[in-house]
Amino acid sequence: MISAELLDHAILAAGRAGTAGNDPYVDPHRKAAARITHHREDSLECSFAYECPAVPNGERVACASGVCQVTACVSPWKPDHGGHACVLPLLSDTTQARGRAGPPATISRSYGLCSLPHLEACPVDANKLLQPQGKHEDERFSTRDLLVMGGFACIDTSRSLTSCGGCSTTGPGRDCTKIRHADGRRVLAGVATLLVAVFVLLPFAQNPGRLINRHPYSNRDGLAWELSPDHCASIGLFEDRNRADFWTVEALSAPSPRLVVRPKNDTAAGCPSLAHAMFSVWIGWAAETRLVAAPPTQGPMGVYTFSSFPPPVTSASSRGTITARFRVRLEFGYYPGGDTGQPCGAHECLPEHLEHVGIKFSGQEILDRLGSRPSLILDVASPPALAPPRVCSSLDPLPLSYRPGHDLFAFVDSTGHPCNIRRVGDQLPYSPRLRWIHFQGDSNSRYLVFELAKMLGLTASITHVETQHSNLPTTAVFHDGTGTGVVLVFRWVFLEHWDTDVDFLARVQLTSLRAFLESIPFPRSTKWPSTFLHPGLRPTDLFISFGSHAQRLSRSGFQAAVDRLRPGLARCSRLSRSTYFLLTAAAEPLDIPERFVGDELMRNNRIIDVQNDVARHFIREHFPGADIVDFFTLTRTIPRSLRLDSVHFMPDVYRVQADLIWTAIIAADERHCPP
User: Fold this and answer.
1) How many independent structural domains does the chain possess?
2) Are residues 200 and 71 in the same domain?
3) CA distance 252 to 131
4) Where are the transmembrane segments (predicted)?
């Protein structure tokens, strides 16, 4: 279903949409590109491949010489001559026959630009190439140029409310949301035209909700709805399940404490269409917050019960009867396949396809019927205290609580006891003359390395940037200038596109530090300490992160991607004394900028959690000696105030991650060199 709002922000083919010159997104990588492209509305300039927008039917999009290029398309589509779009060979040169002045009367074909044959390519409202009446015939654009250059959306006009029966921007279609007495989603007065649009929108909905005067659940206009006998097929139900005010949460203490999330309208309980909702729950104690990780039970369908709550971590508040307060967030009112990480049947799930079946991210908080957060009185029995708390024996999984105003986090080991982590600078059991700590990852790994370098006092640094359009380093080397101690290296390598991932990994030289430094085009004037050039110096510690740029990969797609990387990862791991894998950190879909339309449908924490689970099993099967560090649980627990943007964090978070890195290094050293 494509709403008016989604139409305004629809996927624009070939990246010809207006760029975000005033984009509020604070991700410095994307902002660097935005500074370059703000002067052109049709710019395809880029710094990295992930800045390039998705192209319908595009199999691979790359950033070549600072410009987004389509390098491969799904058969039978092929890249056009400019490398900006995927087109069908027979349609690649098709243009509309010239006719009378003004916009074309109808655009009934996709012109090779839409991924499915039943979709029509409709100009968006902001398309500035829609000609006014009377424009000279010779100055008119062909239909395909109008679409590609001005921006378009691929719409199923047999189902769309905003383009019902054709493209509303060019005349033949009608925007049903503008019909009098309609709010765009429901029938308010039985207007025949709107009824037709509604029935076309969801053919399987035989009877939309009917208007009554009183009901516990009301829409935003104060009008109430009663669900018809076949209420589970109501249009209002399909729309409103994605809104937090459709749901309510109840805290029940008898016969046992539990939290129940259910529809406000009791008659909706049991509807199969409500059986695929997804929620996030946090439990707050006196001075700490924990994520409720245990999944809910469901029964009847659409009624979700949370009954397993983690206890407080800090010993001072973990005894006796305690009041717990809850925060419940609706992630998706409908997300089939989310639990398995397979919301579509392919390796890669396209946002426009997920939107088409009614999947929409919410991110809104659910309150009880009084408009408050629920609370429960829980009887908490803490485990016997250990004095002093020992060091955490495992870093995956790593349960914890967030404690504002303290050390930020309190950790729990696998036995349920509080545990401590090491601090950067603690004595390492293994102290070679020069320790090479190497990180391979994306921007989060880069920020972590930069913070770790500060904490270690590594003031000498040199960086390299692979693209001319950014000052953000893709390689960085930190040391103290003496040629001893720690040399800290970051290399920009992560999982994004299958073929390029393999190529990037193959170019990483870890046979020696000298070979690595010579593989990067640092300035010729660079003077390295003589110990760096010893031919036998290999990485002491190798940290690998798959990153968060494979956001469109389903479980099967992510599995296929890591399987392709296995030979290269094995080569790198064999060259290192110790290998560690960093699980991908949590994201905040609410902070994804609007120009990345639909990213939140796959770049959400349910999918990230599933991808981490795939990575976890992959690592344990093929790299049994490697350590895993759980960054996901830590970043899933923090408030938005500790986030820099949707995927990056404030320095305090990176400092805690650096302590976890140091904890992992000490644990690996102790295994290699037991006391």
Assistant:
1) 4
2) no
3) 61
4) 187-205
